[in-house]
Every structure is written in structure tokens, then in C-alpha cells.
Amino acid sequence: MPATRRKARDSEAAHQPLLPEMSVEESGGGLAKDRSSILLLLLLYVLQGIPLGLAGSIPMILQNRHITYKEQATFSLSYWPFSIKLLWAPLVDSVFLKQMGRRKSWLVPAQYLIGGFMLVLSSYVKDLLGEGDDHVPNVPVITSVFFALNFLAATQDIAVDGWALTILFR
């Protein structure tokens, strides 16, 4: 193909939209049909943000307990699951139970495990954070627990992101 025709073709393609424009009637939806799906997604995103919010408050609590910077840096490892979730995202997208469905196979267990972790954590939070005069916060255990919570929340995030692409109208 001559260079002039290739340039003309490339410039035409650059000015075309990636998705064809469609009216609300053609797309079969709009906000009205997506309202319940958006509310469900909002709920799921809020639920997966709870462990992140709790983990965000732990460094301040540890600092008030006069923990060293090295131990505070150790706790920052608990945020890694969200940074490296792309490593297990293909697994979440490809492995599922047909009875539950592609996304629910990961959403339901992740939510139950997050809830279970948080219930167990609520029983031991004073011991782990070193409440009292003679107790010292157990940073390795706190880091491990929040790493597991963030791993579950990141797994749920993968599933919810994939689900959002399938349940919302165009």
C-alpha cells in the first residue's frame, strides 16, 4: 500500500470513535435499568473497602503506642495484595463453580471469610494492639491478619470489577 493511502487511512481511523454512538433506545438501557446493578456494585465496593479503612488506621494507632519506624514499615506489607492482584486475577477470572457462576464463586466465599476474619479479630484486637501498660503491639501478627484481609478484599475487587462489566448495560 502506498504511503499516502496508508496515511489517509490512518488519519480517518484516528478520528472515528472506538464505540459507535447509540441512542438510549438502541442500547437497551440507560440509568433506569442499571439502577439496581449500580446499587449492588456500590454495596460490594463499600464492603471491600472496610478492611482497607481499618488497615489505614492501624499505623496511627501503632505510632501512638510508640512503635519503631521499622515495625510500621513492616505493617505496610499488608497493602501488597492490592498492588500485586494482577498475579492472581487470571485465576479468579478463569476458575469458578458452574453452580454459583463465574463471579459469585469468588464473591461469596471472600465476603464470608472477610466477615469471619473481622469477627475473630474483634475478639483479639486489644491484645494485638497492646492495650494496657505492660503490653506491646504484636506487629507481625497484625500485619499477617491485615495481609489476609486485604488479599480477600483484593480478590473480591477482581471479581466485582469483572462482574461490573457483565451486569451493566452498555
Q: Your description of this structure?
A:
The chain is mainly alpha-helical and 170 residues long. The chain has eight helices and no strands. The protein has helices at residues 3-14, 24-27, 31-64, 69-75, 80-83, 89-94, 104-129, 139-167. Helix 3 runs parallel beside helix 7 (104-129) and helix 7 runs antiparallel to helix 8 (139-167). The radius of gyration is 23 Å and the shape is elongated. Residues 8-24 have low confidence and may be disordered. GO terms for molecular function: acetyl-CoA transmembrane transporter activity.
Estimate the mean pLDDT confidence.
83
What order do the SSEs take from the amino end to the carboxyl end, as H and E? HHHHHHHH
The low-pLDDT segments are 8-24
Q: State the distance separating the first and last CA atoms.
A: 36 Å
- Summarize the biggest pleated sheet: none
Overall body shape:
elongated
Q: How many beta-strand segments?
A: 0
Rg calculated over all Cα atoms: 23 Å
> Which range does the strand content fall in?
under 5%
Helix content: over 70%
Secondary-structure class: mainly alpha
What is the count of helical runs? 8
Organism: Chionoecetes opilio
Subcellular location: Membrane
Membrane topology: Multi-pass membrane protein
GO molecular function: acetyl-CoA transmembrane transporter activity
